[in-house]
What we know:
349 residues, alpha+beta, 7-stranded antiparallel sheet, 6-stranded antiparallel sheet, 6 helices
Amino acid sequence: xxxxxxxxxxxxxxxxxxxxxxxxxxxxxxxxxxxxxxxxxxxxxxxxxxxxxxxxxxxxxxxxxxxxxxxxxxxxxxxxxxxxxxxxxxxxxxxxxxxxxxxxxxxxxxxxxxxxxxxxxxxxxxxxxxxxxxxxxxxxxxxxxxxxxxxxxxxxxxxxxxxxxxxxxxxxxxxxxxxxxxxxxxxxxxxxxxxxxxxxxxxxxxxxxxxxxxxxxxxxxxxxxxxxxxxxxxxxxxxxxxxxxxxxxxxxxxxxxxxxxxxxxxxxxxxxxxxxxxxxxxxxxxxxxxxxxxxxxxxxxxxxxxxxxxxxxxxxxxxxxxxxxxxxxxxxxxxxxxxxxxxxxxxxx
Length: 349
């Protein structure tokens, strides 16, 4: 869906320029399926982006976006959703029906496939049809006056919207984008360009790729503001800082507590153990009656360097079975309850 929107924004030489290749579109009608085993009846609302129904073993319980009662027992939950505006999606935060990677989906055929799911959309308010871009202001590293305007150099290739300030009384304004200085200044053959009629006080152009922007005007000197459109992802430098501050805190007497879910968490805890600092880890399963940890872990427990905690009773399962999102959230909640501090404490020092 988002790829389709991106390709629909293509322009060249002042004209819309549709893609010359096949563009896939999302399916409009989908069935979401999940096997459950409920010990007792459960009243739940399945939130959906679209319209549809909920049924179990082909018996109707009601519609989406309304409370329905799931009976006790083991059966298949089916949620059918139609959305012709964007694409079907469902959300439920009840642990027994948590919308995570355990669901499958099909197109009303006999070949269900794993659902697409994104941890970034973990609240009801998060709309998967709206890509979670972030924006930050860009400052030009150089402004070069030209005969009919100003050539702005932003130093690196970027992508984002550009706003022309104070367009009134300037006549027609031209924006010419380029990866090079020569491309931006060649106004006749610049691939990406836009003509703006002076009307409102400011004008914001759609997000486009650029390093150089040549701005012209019939009268006056136009000024612009540019923003970088990006997906906020924590960089490795941030993890290095987090690891350093965790180990520093441990050296000063703090005890590190972790569920060891992410690879970064595992690396920090393993390093702390190697350096002789005491740690507490949260297990993703209960401890059996005859629990026998590895020799290494026994030694760590015996020397007060390791405490193993679990919020569950032991349940047998294969080692290859993946941990669920609900279990991850529970383990992280246990960590926060024990530490009584924010996950971001290391950022605030």
